[in-house]
Amino acid sequence: MNNLSRRQFVKGMTAAGAASTTISFPSIIRAQGLNEKLQVGFVATGGRAGAHTRACHEHGLHCVAFAETDKRRWKGVLEKEGWDKATGYTDWRKLFQKHDGEIDVVFVTTPDHTHFAPSMTAVSMGIHCYTEKPLTWSVKEAQLLTAAYKANPKVVTQMGNQGHSMQGWRLAYEYIKADAIGDVTEFHTWTNRPIWPQGGDRKKGSDPVPDYLDWDAWIGAAPMRPYLAPAEFKNKDGETRKKPYYHPFNWRGIVDFGAGALGDMACHTTDGIYAIMNPGYAATAEPIKMTGPVTDQFPAGMVVKSTYRATKNRPGFATFWYEGKDENGKPFKPETPEELLSEDRELPRTGNLVIGTKGKMLVTGDYWEGPQLIPSKRRAEFGKPPQLLERSPGHHKEFFMACRGEKPREFSQSNFSYSGPMTANVQLGNLCARAGKKLELDINGVITNDPSINELAWREPREGWGPLVQKI
């Protein structure tokens, strides 16, 4: 959904521009022949980025330069055959400033709070952009990237929700369109996350920043805070290990840097909802259960209910998101439906329960990989629905094919016109938790029952760490 109001555009541009170092870049994609190698740059090369450096290398892209705040992770590029001459930086801004005109594609795989600025810079410069999920840290950032995709029509984009390129949600779509469960009224989605600390407050103190880490660049757009070194502990075998506090993983539960379990998993586990229902912005978002308030970290558990408006093609529906545990340590999950209990079955560890006016469908796993009508006899009676949707050649491949011009830009199906509004809806769950109240929104995603909460939907970047250029 691209219909942000002009007031939102202007406000977003003013806020982002005021905190950015604006420099002049041509918004022209470097000419590409179908047989020419795509030139790639990476914003982060360790952790999840390893899947993308590997895929790019396997698909024949050539790495020109990269930015990674932790120099120990530079080997993720430099040790790959033919990439040893790539230029490395700890500051992502230098990647764009020093290699303007050399890079066709950028992969952004940093912590959530630093997704927006390099992604907006890339799209505005005319560089194809793949950004990991969640697309952005905040609601407004997602809306702005959606607008940037519309304003830069030659740029191909993709968000890293791999399940969108798999068969599962397509099969679920085909069941629903074949009227296997009637009109959908509710989606219940649950996860085994968080598997990192949540529910605590900010730890005090500071430690020396190691020489391999650019802490200023790691903090990026977020408010500056001291570095904390990993804490040593002994595992069950008596071996000494180190548990990081911020870098490289436990930032996910900290509000300034991550988006908690929602940001980590909802772009996977709720993807089918947005792909099947095309819902637009939520009408309401409400934290109906929370294990404590939002402090420096997200709560240890919560349940969020959202409602979506009816369209001419379907009635309205509700979604329920379950994460973490209650005060007694019991995981938040929906009640196991009678259709499973009658077969001595339980809900899986993660998944979706889709409730319709004529029946129910269970979707197992994080990526919608196993949709099935329940109970089993209903699945046997109905059989497989007619195929309605084309299958994807693969998540990276569809992106590269669109970047090379072999396919239209929309062939990269989790592009920012799709993943932007989806991310905004996902982050509404965190926003209503931070606000501690039910939010009501208009069709443009603007909060109407308490307009002051709209300010929480955006965070002014730390000086110098906003987008280098923004074209929306």
Number of strands: 16
Mean pLDDT over the full residue set: 92
Main β sheet profile: 8 strands, mixed
Cα radius of gyration in angstroms: 22 Å
What would your notes on this structure say?
The structure is a single chain. By secondary structure, the protein is an alpha/beta fold. It is built from 14 helices and 16 strands. Helix content is 27%, strand content 18%. The strands form 3 sheets. An 8-stranded mixed beta sheet has the order 15-14-13-7-12-11-10-16. Strands 3-2-1-4-5-6 form a 6-stranded parallel beta sheet, with helices on both faces. The longest helix is centred in the C-terminal third of the chain and has 20 residues. The relative contact order is 0.19.
Any key phrases for this structure?
472 residues; alpha/beta; eight-stranded mixed β-sheet; six-stranded parallel β-sheet; 27% helix; disordered N terminus
Topology readout:
Layout lengths: L5 H13 L20 E5 L5 H10 L3 E6 L7 H4 L8 E3 L2 H7 L6 E4 L7 H9 L3 E5 L6 H13 L5 E4 L7 H10 L6 E7 L24 H5 L11 E4 L5 E4 L16 H10 L1 H7 L6 E7 L10 E8 L8 E8 L13 H4 L9 E6 L3 E5 L5 E5 L1 H7 L12 H9 L12 H20 L3 E2 L32
Short description:
By secondary structure, this protein is an alpha/beta fold. The protein has helices at 6-18, 49-58, 75-78, 92-98, 116-124, 139-151, 168-177, 215-219, 260-269, 271-277, 338-341, 376-382, 395-403, 416-435; strands spanning 39-43, 62-67, 87-89, 105-108, 128-132, 157-160, 184-190, 231-234, 240-243, 284-290, 301-308, 317-324, 351-356, 360-364, 370-374, 439-440.
